[in-house]
Write a structure and sequence with these properties.
Chain A: Belongs to the ABC transporter superfamily. The complex is a heterodimer of chains A (281) and B (224). Chain A has 281 residues and is of the alpha/beta class. Chain A has ten helices and twelve strands. In chain A, strands 8-9-10-3-11-12 form a six-stranded mixed sheet, with helices on both faces. The chains are: A alpha/beta (281), B mainly alpha (224). Bound molecules: adenosine-5'-triphosphate (ATP) and magnesium ion. The site of magnesium ion (MG) has 4 residues of chain A, from helix 2.
Chain lengths: 281, 224
Amino acid sequence: MSQIIQRMDENEPIVRYRNITKSFGDHIVLKELDLDILPGEKIALIGPSGSGKTTIARLLMTLEEPTSGTIEVGGEMLWHMQRKGNWVAANEKHLHRVRSKIGMVFQHFNLFPHMTILRNVTEALVHVLKMPKSEANQRALEILERVGLKEHTQHYPAQLSGGQKQRVAIARALVMQPQIMLFDEVTSALDPELVGEVLDVIKGIASEGDMAMILITHEMDFARDVADRILFTDGGLIVEQGTPKDIFENPESPRLQSFLSRFLKGQSELQADTRIAAGTE
Amino acid sequence: MWDWQYARSILPKLLEVIPTTLAATFAGFIIACLLGLPLALAKRSRMKWISIPVTAVTEFIRSTPLLIQLFVLVFVLPQSFGITLSPFLAGIIGLGIHYSTYLSEVYRSGIDAIPRGQWEASIALNFSKARTWTRIMLPQSIPPTIPVMGNYLIVMFKETPTLSAITVVELLMTAKVVGSASFKYVEAFTLVGVIFFILSYPSALLVRALERRMKRSERRGLAR
Ligand SMILES: Nc1ncnc2c1ncn2[C@@H]1O[C@H](COP(=O)(O)OP(=O)(O)OP(=O)(O)O)[C@@H](O)[C@H]1O
Ligand SMILES: [Mg+2]
């Protein structure tokens, strides 16, 4: 086990999607996807609605099972395991072990409403990692301080704003020290004035470096600032990928070009709509 | 018609069996609560060989009268399996099993009401299945069902006269015995009615108050 970790140098991907196809019924959502993610790499996924971005993340978080293909995490198969020399579908125990390297933050926070903020963050430390309560509390307090929520440890999720809730959700995932963290449109459910505080927290985490991230987002400025690499998905395919500079300044495929222009236009329309709705226009 | 003095004279006899009646109610309720939860989980199970038979059996029990089930416990069990239960024990078991099928539906609706995101967050944090149930799902799904549970407790209390059919000495049985001794049924049965009312009406008010309080805190967003 330790040998495997040692072999994982900087250039060895921590995640490998190989030939992943996912369909719901006869609707093919991802088509023969290949994707490597390096340790510490920050990847932004952009693309139109329904293009398969969330599905890419959910397959890695084991919330959705691939129809075919394989995913490797840290040199180990995620959805498969070996039994008597044959590859078979992973059982719960195997998933449990490999999944421990992955964390996820959701669009709708999914905090545990019956627990205080502190317990939301300590619960998995205590009951998954079996950490002593005092140590878990200390770790949680450190992380909550980092996301600016030290004053709210004894509150319940319902007493917080959306932005605060999402910062708790980030702390809750972060405290488990995953090697890869998935962020699925974590600001889409927030009021516009609360988006900034959450993005700032994520930027802070990203700048620390060692954790790989997949950021699914419609915030193009944020993607440009944070990502090492941007993937543009459309119709279940990664149509184009490159550095933020490549993607935003030299989009090659017509689909990305039209997405970006539609997106920018859409955004100004959206702003106009909200102004109309607010009665200021 | 109504003989106050006679009524007063039989009252102690009726009051005497209130503990038995309440004991049968609570014991039956506890059985129903304990049995209802695994039934709910089994009915929701993705394994068809568990969910289908359990659903079938609970539907059967729910759709047949309690009285028949009590008779089965008292007459069929000794004959076919050599198990003889005291009337009281048979009574609480029958009551418990019968109402566990109702309570399992209550639990199930509580569990189904939990948003899918809670399951997904539990997986993302790598909670085991068992921990997901004990730390996340059940603590959220049971509190909202408490008022409904309270209503079932009252319903079960009012169902205890059925136990007189298998000779459990509860209120109705006692009234019948007392009444037949003097052929003055009006007083005995009226008192039984009054006792049931005095015990169940305040309980019902209590449950309603509880329900209102929970609705209020839910509106404030504290429950969910
Ligand atoms: N559980 C499911 N059952 C059936 N179809 C699904 C399911 N989940 C996703 N899909 C479909 O798969 C396609 C891709 O969905 P996905 O959520 O990955 O897209 P997305 O790129 O994240 O879109 P958005 O920007 O709207 O979040 C969509 O057409 C969606 O309707
Ligand atoms: Mg999505």
